[in-house]
Amino acid sequence: RFFMGGKVYDTEKAEEVARFRRSFPSSLIQGIYFRKDMTLYRTERGNWFSVSKEDYGEQAGHLETEESVKRIFEATNNIEAFERFFGEVEKA
Fold first, then answer.
1. What local confidence, expressed as pLDDT, does residue 2 receive?
2. pLDDT confidence of 33, banded at 50, 70, 90?
3. Of 25, 28, 60, 84, which has fewest CB within 10 angstroms of its CB?
4. Using a CB cutoff of 8 Å and minimum separation of 24, what contacts does 63-66 make?
5. Is 47 helix (H, G, I), strand (E, B) or coil?
6. 8: which residues sit within 8 A by CB, 6+ positions away?
7. What is the pLDDT of residues 2-31, one digit of tens each?
8. How far, in Å, CA of 2 to CA of 86, rounded?
9. Across 43-85, where does the E strand assignment appear?
10. Burial class, 57, CB count within 10 angstroms (exposed 0-12 / middle 13-18 / buried 19+)
11. Measured between alpha carbons, how far is 33 from 41 in angstroms, rounded to an integer?
């Protein structure tokens, strides 16, 4: 469970939607990025959040917006998930 933005986000009650990797900048060395395994969740109320695996087995919660979720689906080529939550993707 994570307390973010004045709300409780519970991985036990939310739907796991996707797994992906995200780059985070190093706080110690400029220009260095670390990739972390992430899990994307959607709550019963339609709010999005992700959880990253941190050092020493800890986890960190991250709020996601509808736009950031769309970018995740596009970056991971997850067309099925995009269409499930946001409608049909326009054909080229």
1. 95
2. confident
3. 28
4. 63/4, 63/5, 64/40
5. coil
6. 1, 2
7. 999 999 999 999 999 999 988 877 778 888
8. 25
9. 48-53, 59-64
10. exposed
11. 24
Name the burial class of residue 23, with classes exposed (0-12), middle (13-18) and buried (19+) by CB atoms within 10 angstroms of its CB: exposed
How many CB atoms neighbour CB 62 within 10 A? 18
Read off the pLDDT of residues 53-88 as tens digits, 9 standing for 90 and up.
Answer: 877 778 999 999 999 999 999 999 999 999 999 999
For residue 28 the two structure tokens come to: 């110690």
Place of tokens 């919660």: 61
Number of Cβ within 10 Å of residue 41's Cβ equals 21
